[in-house]
Automatic annotation (TrEMBL):
This is GTP cyclohydrolase 1 type 2 homolog. It comes from the Bacteria. InterPro entries: DUF34/NIF3, DUF34/NIF3_sf. One of its GO terms (cellular component) is cytoplasm. Belongs to the GTP cyclohydrolase I type 2/NIF3 family. The keyword Metal-binding applies. PANTHER family: GTP CYCLOHYDROLASE 1 TYPE 2 HOMOLOG (PTHR13799:SF14), NGG1 INTERACTING FACTOR 3 (PTHR13799). GO terms for molecular function: metal ion binding. Keywords: Metal-binding. A divalent metal cation 1 binds at H65, D102, H221, E225.
Length: 253
């Protein structure tokens, strides 16, 4: 068991949360019990995850997608009221890290996606490793984009959407950014990547990929961001002797 504020401070420090300009609050979003024995992690603090936390008697919920996003309505009504009421009624804290968890060099979403898929990390295109969001590297050996897509499907248990650039043959150089980073495709192409992997796709992404000459793989926003929060939860469990459980709330997007 650990004091809530000690645990929050450890996460803030480890992820360098204060250094990121983000669209939301990174860190403690809703204060619950002062003492934490059980931490439930998940990608998004949806009602289904909160219900699982209540059933498990968690003291804290730790997520990548929390609440209080820039430009969203500030009134606590409807869905937002029900979610926050669930936390307050059961004295559960909500801890959330967005960009800091994407960027972390060891247990961030990008780092963990590369580890699960066996990609060799070479650096970040948009900053230092651990600070940037657009990562670059190489596949273990050159092969076709269809083989890469099959590997992603098997690992993430979700069939990705693949936009092939006909003029590109076998691939080795890769760039990736988990979540909704499809508009980084131009930066990925200009860096020399032959394929760019992210979570989502927009209508314009197809034309950019085909005309520039870079394969694009949309592997799922949720699917590409499962692993960072799990790694953070396991780190907390090891460092502070708290129970950790990850719950994957199904999301095809």
């Amino acid at each position: 068991m650990i004091h809530r504020d000690q645990l929050v401070a450890a996460c803030d420090h480890q992820l360098r949360a204060a250094e990121f300009k983000d669209f939301t609050i990174n860190g403690l979003q809703v204060a619950g019990s002062e003492h934490v024995k059980r931490i439930m992690t998940g990608v998004t603090a949806c009602q289904a995850l909160l219900d699982e936390a209540v059933a498990w008697q968690a003291d804290m919920v730790l997520v990548h997608h929390g609440y209080f996003w820039k430009n969203e309505p500030v009134a606590i009504t409807g869905m937002k009221q029900r979610r926050i009421k669930t936390l307050l009624d059961h004295d559960i804290s909500l801890l959330a890290y967005h960009l800091p968890l994407d960027a972390h060099a060891e247990m961030g979403n990008n780092a963990e996606l590369a580890r699960h898929l066996g990609w060799k990390v070479e650096g970040c295109i948009d900053g230092a490793l651990g600070e940037g969001l657009l990562w670059s590297g190489r596949l273990p050996q050159p092969h076709s984009v269809s083989k890469l897509a099959a590997q992603i499907a098997q690992t993430l248990q979700r069939k990705p959407l693949v936009i092939e650039a006909p003029q590109v043959g076998d691939i080795e150089r890769i760039a990736w950014c988990t979540g909704g980073a499809q508009d980084m495709i131009t930066d990925a192409y200009e860096s020399g990547a032959q394929v760019f992997v992210s979570g989502e796709i927009s209508e314009r992404t197809t034309h950019l990929a085909r005309e520039m000459g870079i394969h694009y793989i949309a592997a799922g926003h949720h699917a590409t961001e499962r692993y960072g929060v799990q790694a953070l939860g396991e780190w907390l469990s090891d460092e502070y002797d708290v129970e950790h459980r990850f719950v994957d709330i199904d999301n095809p997007a």
